[in-house]
Amino acid sequence: MEINKTTLGIAAGVAGTLFLGYCIYFDKKRRSDPDYKKKIRDRRRRQRKNGNGGGRSEMPNLNDHEAIERYFLQEIQLGESLIATGDFERGVEHLANAIIVCGQPTRLLQILQSSLPAQVFAMLIHKMQEHGSRAAAAEETKQRIVAASASSGGTSSLALGGGPLDELE
């Protein structure tokens, strides 16, 4: 028996139809499970609980240029793949992490603006503003600690060990 293009096309169509039918059957069976919604909620809670701060990856050593480059590429790839799958929140978080360590953030933002949908780019800008306000708040807290330490004569627990605050006096 000779296999021609028509026979091969029919076989592929039948196989595709069977696969699609199985997917529909399995999805219906899964959704009709009485514990389906409970399992989904539990899984989402676990992901939020086990997630490291909403998808925030560990920052590399900023003195190691190779580590920064690896981190940058990893975050860009993760962000793009998550956005491609529809997980915009986590994708934007990873892209924001990449922008933070980028040597030319303005150029990267221009590229992202031309390649991302407008709503996703707006989410990215909002996330960058959040990162900026968090960094400003952390800097302000650090300055308050230094000021409080200096006003108490440098005898706070931070300055007792002969640390950098003692050198400032």
From TrEMBL:
Belongs to the Tom20 family. It is found in: Mitochondrion outer membrane. It is a single-pass membrane protein. SUPFAM superfamilies: Mitochondrial import receptor subunit Tom20. The chain crosses the membrane at residues 6-26. Keywords: Membrane, Mitochondrion, Mitochondrion outer membrane, Phosphoprotein, Protein transport, Transmembrane, Transmembrane helix, Transport. One of its GO terms (cellular component) is mitochondrial outer membrane translocase complex. Residues 35-61, 147-169 are annotated as: Disordered. Gene3D superfamilies: Mitochondrial outer membrane translocase complex, subunit Tom20 domain. Residues 38-49 have a biased composition (Basic residues). Pfam families: MAS20. GO terms for biological process: intracellular protein transport; protein import into mitochondrial matrix; protein targeting; tRNA import into mitochondrion. Signal peptide: none annotated. Residues 147-159 have a biased composition (Low complexity). It comes from Hermetia illucens (Black soldier fly). Residues 160-169 have a biased composition (Gly residues). It comes from the Eukaryota. This is Mitochondrial import receptor subunit TOM20 homolog.
